[in-house]
Amino acid sequence: MSAAACYPSSTRGRWGAWLALMGLLMSLSFGALGEETAPAAEPAAAPATEEAEAPPTPADNAAALATLNDNANILWTCLAAFLVFFMQAGFALVEAGLTRAKNACNILMKNLMDFAIGSLVFWVLGFGLMFGLTKGGWIGGNAFFFDAEPMAAATGKSVGFSWAFLIFQTVFAATAATIVSGAMAERTKFTSYLIYSAFITAFVYPIIGHWAWGNLFFGDNSSWLMERGFVDFAGSTVVHSVGGWAALAGAIVLGPRLGKYGKDGKIRPILGHNMAFVALGVFILWLGWFGFNPGSTCAVGGDMARVAVTTNLAGAAGALASLVLSWILFKKPDTSMTFNGVLAGLVGITAGCYNMTPSGSILVGLLCGTAVVCAVLFFDKIRVDDPVGAVSVHGVCGALGTLMVGLWGVKYGGEALEPIGLLNGGGSAQFVTQLMGVGAAFLLVFPTMLVLFTILKHTVGLRVSEQEEIEGLDLHEHGNEAYARDTMVTTSGGQSIEALGVATAPSMAKLAAEHGAP
Question: First vs last Cα of the chain: how many Å apart?
Fold first, then answer.
């Protein structure tokens, strides 16, 4: 039996009508869908009334490539400047960690204001004195209140690159200023420090910079030290020794911290409060040096990569040398000396990072890492109190690194390396020039800053009072503390002292009374 027979005829009739209606609706629907999806007719082709665009000429291609290259150089120079700016955080952490907790806010404030004041003063005055059209090869005479628009037309550089060059040089100026903070830590009046910071950024650093780098912006400038072939690619002398010699002058005029040296001649270590800060700060500085040295090429290319390699090798060798020497001298691998060894190697290679082979850069790092340990001990022996070793790292190793270019430096650019050092067959001329540059920087910076700090000492005052030094600069100079006072511990004798060395006033007062204050 068929399936249709299961339903009565009336039912079959109703289903037939229903199926017919559904078929009609479906046919109408598919018809409408077909109309909606049918491709539209191609529009009639418009008559060709415009000529095809002409292909680019070789001159067009060259101009486009030049613009692309300039933009790449602008990007790299700005990124390098941002890395160098980040070094301010590294300096702040190293200095805060190597000093006592009661002065941490003061350290942070000085590092902040170095950059803030330096940025403004260098834009107004410092850049023009350093890179403006030269006056007899000694000082620049224009480009004050720097504006890239007119300067680009005068120098042949693009507006964008001119702005990039300004920000890159600004962060360098701030670095030179901030080096002094550590050597004068824990006893300097904040107002006097601000005056110093403005002075070195406005005058001292730009004058040295003009002597060595005066042709970097106006290419036809003829500065006296640069004309003699002085090599300081990224600033072992121009930046670091300038800061180091200023730090030495400040530490001498200021005198040592209370209790540092006893009347019996004994040297009493005053330990920092946070070596973790020191470690983090050194790693940040090491990273920043990849902007400091390779960034000084101001150009994208293979040279920046080679400079990065020499920079890194010197820092690593400095760490190894200071670790080994401190292990021999102190019977333990000293943490602070090893971290300072990294910085010593990086400072030393900064002059010759472009003019050293990889093996030559390792030798620079090894010698500077050794020298920084010896220098720290030497300055302690002659009672120059430098809490962070700034003079040893930046002053001494900056000078040594600059001289080493004249000992085994090379000149890149030709088919073969050209030796320029006394010890690798290049003769003595480069070493004499390097010695002249190192000596000129010291003879300008150290006496000038010695006079400035002496004037400050006898006018606005350079050093805080004994009570302020004992109780901490954070409270007396800023009204703040880096650490909350509710972190208290109690000695076995029941005497309450604050954690992290904040309330060491009684013990420091006792030391001051026993051993005398400067």
Answer: 125
- What are residue 267's DSSP bridge partners? 261
| Predicted confidence (pLDDT) per residue in 427-480, tens digit | 999 999 999 999 999 999 999 999 999 999 999 999 999 999 999 999 999 999
Q: Counting Cβ atoms within 10 Å, is residue 243 exposed (0-12), middle (13-18) or buried (19+)?
A: buried
**pLDDT at position 415, please?**
73
Query: Distance between CA 177 and CA 201 in Å, rounded?
Result: 6
How do residues 128-144 score in pLDDT, each as one tens digit? 999 999 999 999 999 99
Query: 406-419 in b/e burial notation, b at 16+ Cβ within 10 A?
Result: bbbbbbeeeeeeeb
Residue 54 pLDDT? 85
The whole-number pLDDT of residue 306 equals 96
What are the start-end ranges of the E strands in 284-353?
none
Query: What's at 106, amino acid-wise?
Result: N
Which residue from 343, 323, 234, 332 is spatially nearest to 281, judged by alpha carbons?
343
Question: Percentage of residues in the chain with pLDDT exceeding 70?
Answer: 83
CB under 8 Å to 380, separation ≥6 — which residues? 267
Q: Give 54-90 as a 3 state SS string.
A: CCCCHHHHHHHHHHHHHHHHHHHHHHHHHHHHHHHHH
CA dist list (Å): 164 to 1, 78, 169: 95, 6, 9
pLDDT at 50 over 80: no
Tell me the HSE value of 133 on the side-chain side, using a 13 A CA sphere: 4
Across 197-218, b (16+ Cβ under 10 Å) vs e yields bbbbbbbbbbbbbbbbbbbbbb
Phi, psi dihedral angles at 498 (to 5 degrees): -85, 145
Residue that has been written with the tokens 């209606």 in this structure: 21
Measure the CA–CA gap between 440 and 442, rounded to whole angstroms: 6
Cβ 516 vs Cβ 263: under 8 Å: yes
DSSP 238-262: IIIIHHHHHHHHHHHHH-PPTTSB-
159's tokens: 């507006």
Token digits for 86? 């980040």
